[in-house]
Amino acid sequence: MSTGTAFLKNTWYVAAWSHEIAANGMLARTITRAPLLFWRDGAGEVVALDDRCCHRAAPLSKGRREGENIRCMYHGLLFDKTGKCVEIPSQEFIPPAAKVRAYPVVERFKWVWIWMGDADKADPSLIPDTHTVDDAQWRGTPGYLHYDANYLLITDNLLDFSHLSYVHETTLGGSAKYAGIRPKVTRNGRSVRVERWLIDDEPAPFLRKLKTWPGNVDRWNIYDVVLPGVLLMDSGSAPTGTGAPQGDRVDAAQFFGCQAVTPETERTSHYFFQQSHGFAIDDSSVTENLRQSVLAGFQEDMDIILAQQHILDLAPDAPMLAMRMDTALASFRTMVEKAIAEERAACE
Ligand code: FES
Ligand SMILES: [Fe+2]
Question: Which of 187, 188, 243, 340 is surrounded by the fewest CB atoms within 10 Å?
Fold first, then answer.
């Protein structure tokens, strides 16, 4: 299974949490191997420019804000928010090539999305619906982790929840029965849907700290992983026998998870997430407890994925063995490879 060397470009990537780009601040972040500088113009709109001066490649993030412009603090070129150079010390003529690339950006529900491909194809209606990140009916805490691993190892993890019983035995997962379930997997154009139900079992360990029921519960995880790596997940638990599988969510603990995996380089990734609860929304102890459980769980994911990446680095071409549980991740990898191949073919 290759970890790939190309990235999808004509797609929206999550680049940052809104709060990471302060009104007068600058954020340097690399996405798909492109060094980028994020800042806000006078109206508060996010601007994304190549973080590489067109003169001699100094990062503009080491420069300074001058009103609506950015000055490179190596030899003093000044750039406006469209990336055009508007001043060069010691010469009046500004060559047309004196510019840095500006990228389409959309800020929506506390996430800043960037389009790394052809600007004329950047259609905001293609951005997945992550409204639960910023919605009065839901409560959650913004999360971010930097990963020293290829982004597809992270989406692999998200597409196969059999790992919940083992990686998250005492946190998010619990019963080994969970790994024994065969999820329903379907492909929908640019996403893979996974539906998993565990009927009549104990609540997951993390959930026992958030809500109690007298008996067993039915647990569900129903989610889409959308290109290039955005997870949208409806999950929860409700008392067994009250009809959750049929759609009656009585006395349920419901969650909605939004997660985005954004490649930084072939070998490193950004991971943005918010797990929101839709019950007890005014109980801040539930929000805090959930935050801690999610972080503990995601640290467990990182431990196993970094260890896996280390072994892969030693022998990248050694074979893996496909299992039935790989259905969803194999589908998603095929989808990514196909989309990248189509993009490349369109450029030739
Ligand atoms: S590298 Fe930016 S002005 Fe020279
Ligand atoms: Fe996990």
Answer: 188
The verdict on residue 76 lying in a domain is: yes
Q: Are residues 222 and 141 in the same domain?
A: yes
- In one letter, which amino acid is 249? R
| CA 216 vs CA 86, 95, 124, 200, 246: distances in Å | 67, 71, 43, 5, 17
Look up the domain containing 92 and give its range: 12-125
Same domain, 111 and 188: no
pLDDT band at 4 (very low <50, low <70, confident <90, very high): very low
Both 193 and 119 in a single domain? no
CA of 165 to the centre of ligand 2 (A): 9
pLDDT tens digits along 55-84: 999 999 999 999 999 999 999 999 999 999
Probe target for ligand 1 pocket from 50, 51, 55, 94, with the most ligand atoms within 8 Å of CB? 55
Q: 226, 159, 234, 152: which is closest to 191 by C-alpha?
A: 226
- Tokens (6 digits) for 188: 């929908």
